[in-house]
Amino acid sequence: MSKAPAAKKRSRSGSTKKTKSSESDLFAFADAGVNQKMTVEEKLSCFTEMVRIRKFEQAALQAYQKGRMGGFLHLYIGQEATAIGTISVTGENDHIITAYRDHGHALAVGMNMNECMAELYGKYTGCSKGKGGSMHFFAPDKRFWGGHGIVGGQTPLGLGLAYALKYKGIEGCCLCYLGDGAVNQGPFHESLNIAGLWDVPIIYVIENNGYSMGTSQKRSSAHPDEGLAARAEGYKIDWDRINGSNLYEVRAKTAAAVARAHKESRPTVLEVMTYRYYGHSIADANHHRYRTKEEIRHYQETKDPINVWKNILIEEGHLTEEKAKEIDAEAKAEAKESIRFAEESPFPPAFELLTDVYHSVDNPGTHTNEGKIFFNDRLPFETR
Amino acid sequence: MAIITYRQAIKDALAEELERDENVFIMGEEVAEYNGAYKVTEGLWKRFGDKRVVDAPISEAGFIGLGIGASLLGLRPVIEMMFFSFVYVAWDQAVNNASSMRYMSGGLMNCPLVIRGPANGGTNVGATHSHTPENLIANFPGLKVVVPATPADAKGLMKSAIRDNDPVYVMESTVLYGNEGEVPDEEEFLVPIGKADVKREGSDLSIIAHGRSVLESLKAAEKLKKDYNIDVEVVDLRSIRPLDEETIIKSVKKTNRALLVEENKPFCGVDAQVSHLIQRRAFDYLDGPIHRLSAVDAPAIYSPPIEKIQLPDADVITREVLEMLQVKA
Ligand SMILES: Cc1ncc(C[n+]2csc(CCOP(=O)(O)OP(=O)(O)O)c2C)c(N)n1
Ligand SMILES: [Mg+2]
């Protein structure tokens, strides 16, 4: 593999922030190339997609509270502009991988609500036949490689996806998402070093929602004043910090990272400042103990990514309150329909326990294979 | 005797040992301010403060390794795994370093470390979160593994583990935390590591189990007695390594039949070792082959009703016993 020339400019976060802030100026990043090029349809589609995520999550929450699904439910509500903003600037050779808070990314890559909701229900019609559950959505056909439950576990996998692209000579990259708590897993640091050392076209997107479970970022991470992404300096990797409430800013800065990956085969670390409105998972009923209601309300009222984008589009004359309500209602109906679909779908038959474990078992005759591979003295169900 | 939950029993053990020995400290994710993901350490931070109950970042390899290092200087770290499934990201520290400190130093170093937390399936959290690594960890000479099934055993074993001079892995279960049971009140209530417990006496067949499977076996035993007048003995291993060979052998010699039950996967599971032991030491006493029930040999499935099928429960155990004794259901 030939080495791409190393990027010259390193960090730029500090300076960007001083000159441009979408916190005070909603349109600070509207003139970025990738945003200027946006058609009205694309702008509205980003709005619709964010609303769809929220409605999906709200429907899932209700079903979870009614006991219709098991395990954990980690909602993406509050963080929608991260998945939609970043994924909306990717192309056909760009790949996505994330952690267990994966419903937003799944919908953003184009998975449909039905297969996602059915997966939450553990139904056969789910994207993973009910085998993976909430934390483990996958859609390789949409270049979406999961949905990973072990904190930080996806970070070397993303590195590998990006490595494979470079190996194959494909001009693409991998967007690998992780939380503000996950940055303290060893594999992430090992991955950063390899990415920086070997010019791997990976973009790590740290979704900093302020908390890892009940631990605030302050209590979990030592880092430079500029934030978590600034740790990338130590690996000579470009980094930036993003206001996750503003879709324009998310898109502009992600597009810069994607271009760097495509053109220079260089990695980037992005830190998106965002917020989750619900507990870590729905089982985290005590999340008001580690943060105040006022803090949550502050985000909802002033930084909600959907509202911010709505205001931008209204100001630009592309959207009205009426139209926004229509989009909202449509997304809600779609989510409701996905609940019906999931409710009416069957559970997987028990024999599926033993499928998808080995390719050679599922595809007899395609491998040279002998010997016993499963060790059940007796199965508590009929085999196929 | 007080009736308390399994969770409370562990909490009491931790509190008593924190009180008793200032070298004991607790470290893990969310163990302090949040009171523990499963509330096992609830109130301990408030009572013992920042130094003794420590919230760690999500860096298992870092803080397990820290625990090993600190133990060399005589501290007695009790490291919480939010789930035992997360020990895998710290595998080198947990099994490689922890198991070899004493040996490689020719006995110069002690490693009095406890790693504790839930290790169970059955809660629909999928393949990555449902591991039961007691067999894997017991595979390492130098490490000890205990799997308490009742509140009393949880308390007594936890206290013994903390006082032990070698690394001890205490594998709990989120499914058991809410169970109630009698626990002796005395401060010095210890359950020795390496001692199995006959949880139910019987003469017709021995069920040998550990963890939640003990409770499912006891349920099956009740049903077998009531509906079929079959007297099953239930041996709770409690400790995987060291393993109480004598109690197992004695039971099998008495009943002449053995059914081994675990939620672990079958291949190289704990019961593979137990089965070997029985045929080696009680072959002539067996009236039939040893039977095993374990989790269906596949990664843990999410789908809630199917995961239920994946793990052996009282019904499956009952059926197996009836078949072994050739009694019609
Ligand atoms: C290795 C490992 N340790 C612990 C956990 C338990 N756990 C799941 S999510 C989580 C917090 C992660 O927080 P963060 O990375 O900020 O992501 P967020 O949940 O905020 O999206 C923890 C401790 C895990 N899944 N894997
Ligand atoms: Mg977080």
The named CATH superfamily of the largest domain in chain A: Thiamin diphosphate (ThDP)-binding fold, Pyr/PP domains
Kindly provide the name of the CATH class of the largest domain in chain A: Alpha Beta
Helix content of chain B: 25-40%
CATH-defined fold name of the largest domain in chain A: Rossmann fold
Structure report:
The complex is a heterodimer of chains A (384) and B (329). Mean pLDDT of chain A is 94; it is low at 1-18. Chain A is α/β, with parallel strands linked by helices. In chain A, a hairpin with a 2-residue loop joins β4 and β5 (215-216). Chain A folds into two domains: 9-345, 3-Layer(aba) Sandwich (Rossmann fold); 349-384, no CATH class. Chain A contains 14 helices and seven strands. In chain A, α3 packs across α13 and α4 (80-87) crosses α10 (247-264). In chain A, the strands form two sheets. Chain A has a five-stranded parallel β-sheet, with helices on both faces. A two-stranded antiparallel ribbon of chain A has the order 4-5. With 329 residues, chain B is of the alpha/beta class. Chain B folds into two domains: 2-183, 3-Layer(aba) Sandwich (Rossmann fold), CATH 3.40.50.970; 197-324, Rossmann fold (3-Layer(aba) Sandwich). Chain B is built from eleven helices and 14 strands. In chain B, α1 (6-20) runs parallel beside α6 (151-163) and α3 (60-72) packs parallel to α4 (91-104). Classes of the chains: A alpha/beta (384), B alpha/beta (329). At the A-B interface, loops of A face β14 and α10 of B. The structure holds thiamine diphosphate and magnesium ion.
Gist?
The complex is a heterodimer of chains A (384) and B (329). With 384 residues, chain A is of the alpha/beta class. In chain A, 41% of the residues lie in helices and 8% in strands.
Give me some keywords for this one.
heterodimer; A: 384 residues; alpha/beta; Rossmann fold; 2 domains; five-stranded parallel sheet; 7 strands; globular; B: 329 residues; seven-stranded mixed sheet; five-stranded mixed sheet; 14 strands; binds thiamine diphosphate
